[in-house]
Amino acid sequence: MTEEQENELKGLGGWLILVGIGIVFSPVKIIISLYPLYSSIFSDGTWELLTTPGSEFYNALWLPILGAEIVLNAALVLGWLGIAWLFFSKKQAFRVWYIGILLFTIAFQFADAFAIAAVLPDEEVFDPETLMEIIRSLVYAAIWIPYVLISERVKATFVN
To answer: Which residue spans traverse the membrane (predicted)?
Structure first.
């Protein structure tokens, strides 16, 4: 590739615009989907019912599962904010971190589903909502991981 061709590809254009939109909206989506859930768990007494020994719904696994969910979801929000900084700063590390967060998200979704199944063995491990989220994450990763690995624009843009 000539220097002129490389300069034409350099920058946040083309398909990278869609990547950028996904990066900007990912932390917002996490917050919007989880805030109502977590706020109600803490405000309506659910937390106490699930985590207090002697309660009708107590299970020793609820505290570590819910605690891990909260911490890991907060880490995902911060991770996406860090990815956004790497993206808009055009840092070399963007590709590795972007691929990493996509793969981590999929692994987290599977682990969370199996953890919940350990506490609620009569429930489906992959209820329709969980299954849809996992499929969405798998399709997203199947499209964008190869793109960031192969794209000449990505290679020309993330050089700082």
So the answer is: 12-38, 58-88, 95-119, 131-150
Residue 157 φ then ψ, to 5° = -90, -45
Cα separation, 57 vs 49, in Å, equals 6
Nearest to 117 by CA among 159, 70, 61: 61
Structural contact between residues 59 and 50, judged by C-beta atoms closer than 8 angstroms: yes
Q: Per residue in 60-73, pLDDT tens?
A: 999 999 999 999 99
Q: Are 15 and 151 in contact (CB under 8 A)?
A: yes
User: How many other C-beta atoms lie within 10 A of the C-beta of residue 37?
Assistant: 11
Residue 24 to residues 80, 97, 98, 108, Cα–Cα distance (Å):
8, 15, 12, 20
Rounded Cα gap, residues 27 and 84, in angstroms: 10
- Rounded to a whole number of angstroms, the distance between the first and last alpha carbons of the chain is 19
Per-residue pLDDT of 22-47, as tens digits, reads: 999 999 999 999 999 999 999 999 99
Q: Is pTM beyond 0.90 here?
A: no
